Amino acid sequence: MTDPVATPPPPETTPPPAMNDPSALRSFWASISAVGAKESRWRMRGRRAFVVVTIYVTLVSLLVYAVYQFMYDQALRMAQFQSDGIPVDFVSGVVSAQIGQAIFGAILVLQTVLTIMVAPALTSGAISVEREKQTLELLITTPVSTLGLVIGKLFSSLAYVFLLIAASVPLMSVVFAFGGLAPEDLVRAYVLLVVVAFGIGSIGLVMSALVKRTQIATALSYLVVLGLTIGTLALHTYWMFSTTDQENGFVRGLRVHDAPEAIMWLNPLAADLDVVCTGTPESYGFTCQYIALVTHREVVPPNQMRDAFWPASAASFLILGIVLTLLTTQLIAPSRRIWRRKRNRPPPLDPASEPASSSPVQAEPVA
Amino acid sequence: MIPSSLPALQIQGLTKLYGTVRAVAGVDLDIGAGEIFGLVGPNGAGKTTTIRMLATLIEPSAGEAQICGLDIRRQPNSVRRVIGYMPDTFGVYDDMRVWEYLDFFAQFYVIPATRRRQVVADLLELVELTSRREDYVQSLSRGMQQRLCLAHALVHDPKVLLLDEPASGLDPRARAELRELLRELSAMGKTIVISSHILPELEELCTAVAIIDRGRVLASGSVDQIQARFRRGSVVRARILGGPDAVGSAREFLGAQPEVVSVEILSEGRLELALVGDDDASAGVLYRAMSAGHRVVSFAPVASDLEELFLQITAPNEESAA
Predict the structure, then answer these.
(1) A341 and chain B in contact, CB less than 8 A
(2) What is the pLDDT of residues B238-251, one digit of tens each?
(3) Which uninterrupted H or E stretch holds B86?
(4) Over 90: is that where the pLDDT of B266 sits?
(5) Does the structure show a pLDDT above 50 at A8?
(6) What's the ipTM?
(7) Nearest Cβ partner of A360 from B4, B85, B315?
(8) In this structure, is the dihedral angle defined by the CA atoms of residues B17, B20, B26 and B32, taken in order, positive or negative?
(9) Contact call for B68 and A6, based on CB within 8 A
(10) A141 contact residues in B (CB cutoff 8 A)
(11) Is A16 within 8 Å of B152 when comparing Cβ atoms?
(12) What number of other Cβ atoms are within 10 A of residue B121's Cβ?
């Protein structure tokens, strides 16, 4: 242990240099690694994490099998119908591609729903639990990088979501056996899933810093997620229909282009539809029609509609995540805010109400 | 450790307002390097708020404070590297082993992994928790958790320790162990600021104390200095040998002394005297009693004296209360 150093007080204008401060970047990485390791250890210790992953993979496998069986049976019936009732026991390559695309869409939507259900639950306790357990003060009085702490918390909480997403990759790869999708379609899907997890996770994180109690933070996070999914859909739909042209009380036509596309940017399910549409443009099915409606485009079969909506949506989730993460760093501790309040001048002393005057002992100047 | 003349903490006019309430109303203190400094005052006096401002947890509304020359407002991150802070109430992480707990905090100070192992081992030995290294933190007793929390505040070898009511909730044995540990840390050269609402608890430990009430420092200095400055009298218990007659005669004699305000017979030859004046006055009374042939076998101030002094200093003025 070292001897105490008593540095003479510095002049008012030149504060002394920081004492052996490591660089901000090293401190930032050290904070991420410390918090990340601790949180991951906590989440992964014991059997629970592995049991959940196993159950999840089993459920996704069952979904894949159900979609496959449903699509295959339907195709066989169609082929039998087209061959005048002669039984067939194979389907064409086109049908095989359609099965692959259906599995792709089903897994993507399932993963998205899972992400928006699980991410807020995992992140909405990240800061409030530290407050409830009275451990936040211990952290804040260390030179921890607040941004490192928040990022460490966010990504270690989301690590579990990412683990579930990663566990689905082998099952998602089944679609290549059926054809109809290119590897970049899967890349699109996973990029979208990761940014959605980041954006939605950061909603839970900011609530956790804003509200003291975890339960309330979780409830508020789900309320926001509900708003982003059902709320935006309802608003967008209402907007479209409220701008319907009417003539003598009769609907003359829909002016759908009046509903701004941006309303739906933070709706992860709408982005899913565009990723599916991008992967299967030749089908011009429901997914492409809905995206055409949202993005005000014409759906004409020769014009393939690719990447019409989801990049804007992914960028929105990314920006949302960054903004909310930075906001969380400012909410976590008032004394660590970048823009701290200007110093308050204390109100003038009121001798009548001053505690010192009511004491029998005079305040002593310290020797 | 002889306190250095240069202050490790300089506090000037430190103030904290919550709305119009002054939790801390202009505290001025200089605390020398190597001192064990006690902040003592009743609940709500502003001790915790003062320590939290020094620990950079909350911002002062006004005033300045420097710790090892570093300004708590302008250089909070540098201040965090020279202080170790232990709050009055703290929690522990679930599912974390004792060594992991210390290692976790050590990482924030960017201590390399190899050195961290040594630091953790040394600290566990210092707080006598080496045998509990692999245990989960939540399985430790309150006293052990308190020592572990103190160890967490030491991972970066800070120069100043800010301890808010570290002995609260501890049994007498754990208190004694903590006191011993703090003396050891003081011998290592640490400046320790410790708060308590019980003055006698700090009496033996601290080299100096400040008595705080309603956000203000009412008195400061060593406990002896404060006693000498403020004591207006004392309560002494004496034991007289002999039968009831001897005790009655001693009571009569003592009651006639000018310094003695009152005398009461307790039991078995014991008397309780209320005296005015300082130790010289007490010595004078004892000398005269012995010279007059009274067989006094013990003559000592009662333990509650210091507490009474504390109550006397922090007592609200009846006039202002009305």
Answers:
(1) yes
(2) 899 888 888 889 98
(3) strand B83-86
(4) no
(5) no
(6) 0.74
(7) B315
(8) negative
(9) yes
(10) 55-57, 80, 83, 85
(11) no
(12) 14
**pLDDT confidence of residue A268:** 95
Q: pTM for the complete prediction?
A: 0.76
Residues 6+ apart with CB under 8 A from B294: B240, B246, B249, B250, B253
From the list A279, A265, A283, A360, the residue with the least C-alpha distance to A320 is A265
> Helix or strand or coil: residue A335?
helix
Residue A122: which H helix or E strand, with range? helix A93-123
Instruction: Locate the chain B residue with the closest alpha carbon to A32.
Output: B108
> How far is it, in rounded angstroms, from Cα A203 to Cα A183?
31
Q: Tell me if B69 and A16 make a contact (CB, 8 A cut-off).
A: yes
A363 interfaces chain B, CB cutoff of 8 Å:
yes
* Strand, helix or coil for residue B177: helix
Q: What is the mean pLDDT of residues B123-141?
A: 92
CB of B47 closer than 8 Å to CB of B166: no
Q: In whole angstroms, how large is the CA radius of gyration of chain B?
A: 24
Buried b (16+ CB within 10 A) or exposed e, B294-310: bebeebebeeebbeebb
**Nearest CB to A137: which of B57, B94, B189?**
B57
HEC letters along A254-289:
CCHHHCCHHHHCCCHHHHHHHHHHHHCHHHCCHHHH
In whole angstroms, how far apart are CA B260 and each of A205, B241, B287, B310, B312? 68, 20, 14, 22, 19
C-alpha distances in angstroms, A59 versus A52, A110, A120? 11, 10, 21
- Is B189's CB within 8 Å of A1's CB? yes
Q: Distance between CA atoms of A274 and A289, rounded to whole angstroms? A: 10
Tokens of B58: 């909350």
For residues B88 and B167, the answer to whether their CB atoms sit within 8 Å is no
Nearest by CB to B28, from A15, A360, A366: name it.
Answer: A366
How many Cβ atoms are within 10 Å of A62's Cβ, its own excluded? Answer: 10
AA identity, residue B320: S
How many angstroms separate the Cα of A85 from the Cα of each of A93, B81, B102? 21, 83, 75
Give the integer Cα–Cα distance in Å for B203 and B84.
23
Cα–Cα distance, B237 to B182 (Å, whole number): 33
**Among all residues of chain A, which has the CA nearest to that of B161?**
A4
